[in-house]
């Protein structure tokens, strides 16, 4: 991975006054860089720069799903009985992740596990569950129609939901960054008198970085502080992994360099833990029997405290040594929608 000197830029960005940080309503006022970054080229590079690791899957018994999967299936007007759940272990963590896939999803289990395994463990540990939808997403009410029909992927709390063609590393980095935004620096922000539900991107610590730049990373970044932070996170990952950093994608990248540097300074140690192992894990949602919502019950055939059962006593199994990362209660239903490009 490519390293960079971040402290001078961070020191500089922390001297910006708050009067420089106010965006216009619902959209940041600064332009995106020019020439723009190419997401297509980035996706090709990310597959090279973040190779997959070995994984071990274990299917859940039929009739059992994570509650999150049932909820997202019904939210998108699908029958939960058309989904299957699989736990998957990676060598960098002693506990699994649960993936729930619709039978008509274009993403194969192998591609799902390979892609998820390539996410650096410090990022991946902030994912609760992953849900893969098929292509014909339908709104369940007129009020949700615009949002759901345009969604390519979204994050709800720490649950990631993807439609076909968007389960790839760039979008994963973007969506996981939303979770980092609301959860990773919670204790630090509480110590600075911020509300427990305040995203890091809505604080002076991020907005000062924005104030020191003349542009944002992408047109999508202009939507809100949260989207600016999420796309800065996406592109910061390539700044780590490419020999020439973001100069490989655009000579205009320096116009957003402080945001990239700030993301790396605040999140780098979290994303890349020193020993390369998870330092915690957001718990997966409880198991339910499809159609009966038997919350907290263990699927038949699972041992007490096993990962698939997610019993009240132990969601991870005895002696795993992995602490539970807590997503603040007020954040658990926050939804960040990625519309694609």
Description:
It comes from Podospora fimiseda. This is Conidiation-specific protein. Residues 1-19 form the signal peptide. The chain is globular and about 55 Å long. It has eleven helices and eleven strands. Helix 1 packs across helix 11 (257-271), helix 7 (169-184) crosses helix 10 and helix 10 (225-241) packs across helix 11 (257-271). The two termini are 27 Å apart. It has one domain. With 341 residues, it is of the alpha/beta class. A seven-stranded mixed sheet has the order 1-3-4-5-7-6-11, sandwiched between helices. It has helices at residues 7-13, 39-49, 67-75, 109-118, 121-124, 142-150, 169-184, 186-191, 204-211, 225-241, 257-271, and strands at residues 55-59, 64-66, 83-90, 97-102, 129-132, 153-156, 159-162, 281-282, 287-289, 324-325, 335-338. The longest helix is centred in the last third of the chain and has 17 residues, at 225-241. Helices cover 33% and strands 13% of the residues.
Feature tags:
341 residues; 7-stranded mixed sheet; two-stranded antiparallel sheet; 11 helices; 33% helix
What's the quick description here?
This protein is an alpha/beta fold and 341 residues long. The protein has helices spanning 7-13, 39-49, 67-75, 109-118, 121-124, 142-150, 169-184, 186-191, 204-211, 225-241, 257-271; strands at 55-59, 64-66, 83-90, 97-102, 129-132, 153-156, 159-162, 281-282, 287-289, 324-325, 335-338. The chain has one domain (1-341).
């Amino acid at each position: 991975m490519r390293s960079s000197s971040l402290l001078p830029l961070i020191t500089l960005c922390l001297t910006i006054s708050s009067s420089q940080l106010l965006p216009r309503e619902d959209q940041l006022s600064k332009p995106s860089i020019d020439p723009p970054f190419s997401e297509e080229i980035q996706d090709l590079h990310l597959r090279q720069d973040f190779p997959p690791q070995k994984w071990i899957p274990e299917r859940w018994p039929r009739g059992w799903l994570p509650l999150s999967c049932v909820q997202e299936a019904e939210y998108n007007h699908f029958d939960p009985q058309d989904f299957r759940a699989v736990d998957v272990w990676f060598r960098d963590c002693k506990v699994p992740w649960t993936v729930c896939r619709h039978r008509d999803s274009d993403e194969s289990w192998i591609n799902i596990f390979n892609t998820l395994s390539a996410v650096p463990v410090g990022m991946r540990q902030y994912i609760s569950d992953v849900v893969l939808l098929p292509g014909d997403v339908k709104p369940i009410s007129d009020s949700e129609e615009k949002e759901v029909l345009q969604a390519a992927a979204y994050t709800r709390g720490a649950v990631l939901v993807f439609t076909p063609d968007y389960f790839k590393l760039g979008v994963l980095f973007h969506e996981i960054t939303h979770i980092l935004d609301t959860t990773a620096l919670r204790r630090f922000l509480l110590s600075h008198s911020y509300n427990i539900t305040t995203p890091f991107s809505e604080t002076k610590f991020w907005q000062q970085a924005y104030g020191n730049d003349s542009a944002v990373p992408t047109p999508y970044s202009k939507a809100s502080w949260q989207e600016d932070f999420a796309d800065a996170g996406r592109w910061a990952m390539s700044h780590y992994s490419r020999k020439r950093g973001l100069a490989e994608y655009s000579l205009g990248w320096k116009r957003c360099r402080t945001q990239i540097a700030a993301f790396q300074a605040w999140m780098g140690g979290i994303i890349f833990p020193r020993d390369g192992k998870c330092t915690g894990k957001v718990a997966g949602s409880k198991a339910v029997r499809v159609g009966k919502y038997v919350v907290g019950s263990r699927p038949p055939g699972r041992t007490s405290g096993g990962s698939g059962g997610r019993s009240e006593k132990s969601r991870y199994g005895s002696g795993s040594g992995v602490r539970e990362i807590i997503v603040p209660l007020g954040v658990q239903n926050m939804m960040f929608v990625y519309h694609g490009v």
